[in-house]
Amino acid sequence: VSQSRKIFILGNHEDRLRSYIWEQARAIFGLITLEDLLGIQKGEWEIVPYGKYVRLGKLVVTHGHRTNTNHAAGMLQDYGHSVIYGHMHTFQMHLRVNALGEEQVGICPGWLGDLRQIEYMSRIPQWCHGFATVEIRDDGVFFPQVHKVLNSCTTLDGKYYTKLGKGWNKPKTNGPMFVLENSVCTQDDGK
In 3D, which of 126, 152, 106, 120 has the Cα closest to residue 13? Predict the structure, then answer.
């Protein structure tokens, strides 16, 4: 029987908003919450503060903080445990075996944002679109799958999906819908 949890892991951008309210609008600090601003109903999601993590089986899930070239290896070193994170907005994976013979992995699967909305970017970002799904067994062993999104298309469980939205062509199918973060996608039967 599958159990699902809705977990919102706050990142550096959400933390900037908190800092801005504290520094520029201290009178309302505490009166309005980040959950209010994001439209998250109390109790609907577990909120993990920026810099903290949640453990799902033998996997640590966090926003991340590394910004160097070998960030996946660095995150694995920092946590000493398998970790998945998204801070770098790019795909990277690093594997290692510890002294007990246990395999560990650091995974950054990419992001699902819209580069056209990033006004502060002054160079060509090396970011890539992607997401991960993770199956976690009762004993905590986990099986991650990274799904790359290339040219607004991806596959999931052997099915092909393409992004819909402003400026995008509608796929040829009226198949079932699913949501990837802020991207609405539809199943495409490839016809």
Answer: 120
Q: Are 134 and 84 in contact (CB under 8 A)?
A: yes
Which residues are 180's β-sheet partners?
183
H or E element, residue 74: helix 71-79
Amino acid at site 61: V
- C-alpha span between 74 and 150 (Å, rounded): 26
pLDDT in tens, 6-19: 888 989 888 888 88
DSSP-assigned beta bridge partners for residue 71? none
User: What burial class does residue 110 get, using C-beta atoms within 10 Å of its C-beta: 0-12 exposed, 13-18 middle, 19+ buried?
Assistant: buried
Inter-CA distances, 76 with 52, 94, 133, Å: 15, 8, 19
Nearest to 183 by CA among 138, 106, 140, 129: 129
Q: Kindly report the pTM of this predicted structure.
A: 0.77
Q: Are 81 and 94 in contact (CB under 8 A)?
A: no
- CB count in 10 Å sphere of residue 89: 20
Q: Encoding tokens for residue 48?
A: 């993990």
